[in-house]
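Support case: user asked for a sample of complex input and structure output to validate their parser. Sending the pair below.
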Amino acid sequence: MFTPFFYILKAKGLDVSTTEWLTLMDALDKELCGASLTNFYYMARMILVNSETDFDKFDKAFLEYFKGIKATDKLPAKYKRWLETEEQENELNRLMKPEDDYNYLMQNKDDKDKKKVEEMFRERKAQQNTRHDGGNQWIGTNGTSAFGHSGKAPGGIRMSGKTGMQSAFAVIDEERYRDWRIDKALNYRQFQVAFRRLRQYSSRLDVPKTEFDLDKTVDKTCDNGGYLSIEYSQPRKNTVKLLLLFDSGGTMIPYMHLCNNLFKAVDKANHFKDVKTYYFHNCIYSHVYKTPECEDGDWVSSDWLFRNLDADYKVVVVGDMQMAPEELYDKDGNYRGPNDGFSGYEWLKLYKKHFKRIVWLNPAKHDYAKLMDWMQAEAAIQDLFPTYKLSVKGLNDAIKKLMNPAAL
Amino acid sequence: MSETNFKGTSEYIASEQLLAAVNIAIALQKPLLVKGEPGTGKTMLAEAVAKALGKKLIIWNIKSTTKAQDGLYVYDTVQRLYDSQFGGENVDDIAHYIKLGKMGEAFKSDEQVVLLIDEIDKADLEFPNDLLWELDKMEFYIHETKETVTAKTRPIVIITSNAEKELPDAFLRRCIFHYIEFPTPEQMEEIVKAHFETIDDDLLHEAMKAFYEIRKMRDVRKKPATSELIDWIQALNLGGIPLDKIQKELPFVGVIVKKDEDLETIKKNRIGY
């Protein structure tokens, strides 16, 4: 049953497994959702979808497959057709009588704005003579007009659905779950979560022996002629060392909050063996700064970094790659400090050569930088380092890449 | 599903969707995974389900150091070694040193129980994967005694997560998933009323107005949740604060907002008052 729906879900990028699908079939067999489409919607969602970030994808698939199916909600028939079908517009418009709609609307409206909306509705009715989807003025779907449904007008009239157990279509069209979509920019918590994945365990560490070691204890006890001799060993510890490099150039100001969150998440994460943070301005040259202000002298040299941080450090660079080509390619392109004989591009290559695992997070990544002349620098750097957008998905991908360079 | 149908309790107000999720999970005999903001009553849900269905509740609290094995059984080797050394009783009987964990307890129970695995996201990333077989088959094997513990009646398993970590896919596929949304003001009123026998309506409204206003402030990092509101109302009630002062002065604001930086934000945002 509904097998095409399964494939639509897959096509929308939802990773639905056969087992989950069979579970849903089982649930249908047991008639757990009765005969209601709305209940079916919720049931299918709770079985097939595992994360609120995917609700949006599910909604889109559901709408595609079930569009046009008659919902059982109480809604004037012609509205339902109007809102759910794409055709027969002329006929519908002919059928439409302003008074009916008005009565329906008034039943569903709080007293508060009644008067205002009432006036507007009369006015609008008098002028409207076609179906409208997606405007900001007329009665119809998907717009920002106060009339219709699926609109974004906060104080408007809702033409379908009710509170509580809402009609499936009404719930969908609101796209309430969009906020959780994975490609949205990150908050602090999500940063923390992502960074927790950055770990590699090792027991070859200089930490106190606190864990009871059964095998060793048995061996020792045997050696000891049967007299008990308890042995402890070192607990597993994360061995990941992290170097963070932040661009604090002027173009990064809009992303300050984001970078601040990222920084705090790393700072709070106490599971790294070591974390070092430095700053640069637009591009990395012979020095990186100790503070975001990037003041001359308050820095360490890149050479120092290479000497003191071994190649095991995993490097995360955060920057928007916005710079003039000269800043990247000229041997004196650094207008804030010394170049020390290399261009920015050459310095970047030195970083790449020393640190085996570098990813670049760009809050304003352009996917088609190569095609744009004025993004020459961005394109060149993207060629040099694996680059990800600074979003939930981007950060997760970046961290996967750091852990396993063969991935992605 | 008629005899085990959860309808909420007088203290626990659940949305229709949540009720449906609970009942479907019970009917399909699958674990129910409940996610949502802290303070939206995820843990209380299990208590309410247990109470409503008249079943015993077993809570397995997960901590960062919890391992899957802890929930099944622990073999107390050290105790046995010492006992063997100093001639304790029953040293020959390994079973004597096998201590069942919470999950083992739930499986061994003669009657069906509600098993709450609380805050599963607190544990190691791989933790849920280590429980796949046990949750699927409702059985586990004790190597030391060569005994298989099989659930006499499948417990109703409720798992909560604060979404701190992504849970592994293989685990998620086996669960019925429900996301508890933050209650609307109307639902909130119902919830608060369920917690107090008598509550002054004006006090409730004033407190709720201030509460939702604080939640709306974008810079507040730790948004106050239901449990904080309830504590606050309790405090306001006991403190006998005049109504007009609630909105103006936010007395006992430390109950709803706990971070210094958030208190600063609220002060800044409320300069107009």
